[in-house]
Write a structure and sequence with these properties.
Strand content: 15-25%
Structural class: alpha+beta
Oligomer: single chain
CATH superfamily of the largest domain: Mannose-Binding Protein A, subunit A
Order of helices and strands: EEHHEEHEEEEEE
Bound molecules: calcium ion
Number of helices: 3
Number of domains: 2
Radius of gyration: 18 Å
Length: about 180
Amino acid sequence: MVFSSLSPFPTMTPVCDMGKGEVVGVGGKFVFCLTILSLCAETLLCFVELMSLIVSTDRYLKQNWIYFSGSFYYISTTEKSWQDSRIDCWGRGADLIIIGSKEENFQKRVWIGLSDRQIEGRWIWLDGSALRKSFWYPGEPNNDGDREDCAEMKFFNKENSWNDAPCTNKYFWICEKKTGV
Ligand SMILES: [Ca+2]
Ligand SMILES: [Ca+2]
Ligand SMILES: [Ca+2]
């Protein structure tokens, strides 16, 4: 059984024999643990909720999702246009990744959930939020050829990695599903 650090009790510290953040197996899958009984001895409801969380976590990890800091991430193995990437994520109950911190910049050239398709130059995340913290590569976004409205993580070995590209280009992509806890 795989446990996760999706603690519904932020004030309690997850305890794990394997060590928090230990990388297990191929593909850099992060497996976090917690000790259920020490956190959840108090109420049955809590225990039931936590068990369902663990079952869904186990299912995601088996489908090659990665857990990190409150979200699951799925990294595609094929390349698609930005919109087709979204549709794939929807089919997985998720959407393209929304990047809130530099830790969410993955080491792969992928589409991210950011576009200026509605109003040129106004970059909006897929959840409707405006772009605050950004990681554009120097000189980007440049709307090259007046046809670049979707954002990709292009220079993924740099902290400022983003580029705007034509939405019809085909790249790998990352889906993100927040856990809600
Ligand atoms: Ca995110
Ligand atoms: Ca544009
Ligand atoms: Ca560009």
